[in-house]
Write a structure and sequence with these properties.
The protein folds into two domains: 48 residues, no CATH class; 135 residues, no CATH class. It is elongated, with a radius of gyration of 23 Å. It has a two-stranded antiparallel ribbon. By secondary structure, it is mainly α.
Amino acid sequence: MARKRARPSDPLALAKARAEARRDAAIPATWGLDAAALSLPANAAVVTTFDLARRPTRARRSDVFDLLLARGRLSQRAFDAVRRLERDIALLHRGSAGVGGYEPRVDRARSADAFNDVRLDAGRRIEAALALAGPASANLLRALLEEAPAQGCDWRAVIERHCGERLADAQGAVLRLACENLAGAYGLIDQARRRRERV
């Protein structure tokens, strides 16, 4: 039986397909999530969010704060305070460190400094909260939220380096205390803001 020969591909069509693939690879919105990669055992700590069509739309690796909250070792108030600080830190560093392609599109109707003003406000909020949380808590939280993710460090190693604590239970207690101090700091900031709004 004679085998069917494949027809040669059109070089122009191949070049066009390659160009479209390169263009799509440069746009983060087209990347999507790889379901096969997310199902690997190494990604067991990844929390995936799905849309109505059950397509994965967002993935986030759970961290030590998620772990402590899930085990009942961290209050919801402290967890929310850490996430609030984390959002401000992300806003402060957005557009720096070589991720210019991810910064939000600036509305041309606004002044050119509007984006920098948002970042400066985030920096002020961070400094105010960390100043009220205390120097030890501030240094530890700053290291865990800014330095450790960039370096891929273990949270226990960060606590040992900043606090000198080697016992596992004590490391968790030190971190919980820092988170509760941060929650108290945000409580004071919110209380002062409400007082100003009433006047």
